[in-house]
Amino acid sequence: MQKEIKWMIIATLTLMAISCEEYKMVTYDEGGQINFMGWDEWNYERDGVEYLTWNKNFGINPLGDSLRIDTVRVGVKIMGEPTDYPRQVVFKVKALTTEEMQVEFLPEGYVVPAGEGKAAFKFVIKRPAKQNVVYKADLEFDYQTSAFTPGTVERQTFKLQCSDIVNQETWNVNPATWEGLSSFCLGDWSETKARFIITTLKITDFAVWASDDWGVFLDCLDLYYILDEYKAASAIDPQKYSPLWDETKLPDKVWISFPF
What we know:
By secondary structure, the chain is an alpha+beta fold. It has 5 helices and 12 strands. The protein has helices at residues 2-29, 175-186, 191-201, 206-210, 213-236; strands spanning 33-39, 45-46, 53-57, 69-79, 87-89, 91-95, 103-104, 110-112, 118-126, 135-141, 149-150, 157-163. A hairpin with a 5-residue loop joins strand 1 (33-39) and strand 2.
């Protein structure tokens, strides 16, 4: 009986030793492989491919044309043990559309600090040069100059998309709701008019705004007078206050208007 127990103990210790060796092999042999990482809406780290995306519509924002760039945050996660020295990460951009996205990285570059297995980096994307065009690109690792090797295949790409589009779909407009407000408040639909409302009243979701009838009425009164002030300023300094021509009436140069 004692002999059987002895052999069982020896066998158990042997298996544990083998398991430890296998674990060390996985840990140290795979050190230096890199993957993209993202965050969910609560800012928790996520590895799923659905979190490895960035999508920005510059047109639907309260700053209007003055929003010239936007900042993108990407995360990286290293497989294996951290090192006691910093390691360089180099990115490259692969355009997926004819119109190329303008991406600017920090001139000093990016490094994963010593002792760290994760890092977050930032870079900027310029506002699209053309309106009503979708720009797409893939952010990838440049392994020719990076200090890492590829990790898992599905986490080697961070998808980027940007646009400058204002239409009824992107602004969450129900056409019937607009039609109901057109006769006494908004007038006919116009993209230029929509952009003016977005930047003047800081409204990025039309449906939410339109749900408050009394608020809409008061805002429309404000829009009428604000537009008059803008037209007066444009007559003095058209460079700073560009005329807001209604694009639905071009080539005739007709200002946008509200029914009040």
